[in-house]
Amino acid sequence: MIIGHQIAHRNVASKYYRFKPEDLETALEDFTSILEKDHYHPTGDMFFSILSDPTADEMIIEIFVPIKEDRFKPNSDEKILFRSYFSVTPMVMTRVTKNFNEQSQEKYWELFSYLNRNELEQRTPVFIEYKKTRSGKIYVEMSVGV
Hints:
The protein has helices spanning 24-37, 100-117; strands at residues 2-19, 47-50, 59-66, 81-96, 126-132, 138-145. By secondary structure, the chain is α+β, with helices and mostly antiparallel strands. A hairpin with an 8-residue loop joins strand 2 and strand 3. The two termini are 13 Å apart.
């Protein structure tokens, strides 16, 4: 666990989604295509927050994408939110470096076990960030605000 982690981005567009867990990739692709269709340019890694019980049949998430533009007026009828600055701090964070499907559930419960053991109060939903090392290896950071 890493204590004192933070998420901070400028000019962030976001959208809420409800879907079956196996359709996560479809939701991520949908949001990317909406932004591209409206001529917005992502500048950072996409991330999302899990707003529902992770064991439920349907997930509710908010997907976030930092964009180049400092103003946002969508051309479509989609309900997209915009924040000129997005920051969550302090956070407790853990990483998933392999076997993402299996390890994600384990790390999720490990995160909450850590909060309970250390008497920390959860103040935000769980955030999931996809990252890439300089060598191109993909990993996931899973964090929660405390």
